[in-house]
Amino acid sequence: MKYTLLIYQGSTPTPDDPDAWEAMAEERKQEVYRGYQALSRAPGYEPGPWMEGPEMATTVRVQDDQVLTTDGPFAELKEAIGGLFTIDVDDLDAAIEWAAKVPAARFGGAVEIRPKRQGSY
Questions:
Q1: pLDDT averaged over the chain?
Q2: How far is the C-alpha of 9 from the C-alpha of 64, rounded, in Å?
Q3: Which end of the chain has fewer CB atoms within 10 angstroms, the N or the C?
Q4: Is residue 60 part of a domain?
């Protein structure tokens, strides 16, 4: 079964935030790199699209037939999606094991797992 894993960075430092990243211990940085590299090399892994940071987002809503746009994510920045990928595994338990290996899940963020919908709309 295919699952999409949505990575919420939370307070996890990334190289996109040089000050926070540089303040992190070198051992922790290497752990983050190794974690993502291991995931990307595992069988069943399908990378998601590269995205700009949440500060580049535009949120669109329609209210009373009027299109409303807001700069930035609708969710609080700490809850914004930092990336996503798809895996092909046997069941939800296997997807949970994958999610637990995502560095963001261990360092202040979270990973949301959603089964891929079969068919089309």
A1: 85
A2: 34
A3: C
A4: yes
The rounded distance, in Å, linking the Cα atoms of 89 and 98 is 9
Residue 68 lies in a domain: yes
Q: What is the pLDDT of residue 70?
A: 79
Look-up of token digits 């920045």: 77
pTM: 0.76
In a domain, 121, yes or no: no
Q: Three-state SS across the chain?
A: CEEEEEEECCCCCCCCCHHHHHHCCHHHHHHHHHHHHHHHHCCCEEECCCCCCHHHCEEEEEECCEEEEEECCCCCHHHCEEEEEEEECCCHHHHHHHHHHCHHHHCCCEEEEEECCCCCC
Local confidence band at 57 (pLDDT 50, 70, 90 cut-offs): confident
List pLDDT tens digits, range 83-121: 899 999 999 999 999 999 998 888 888 899 999 887 766
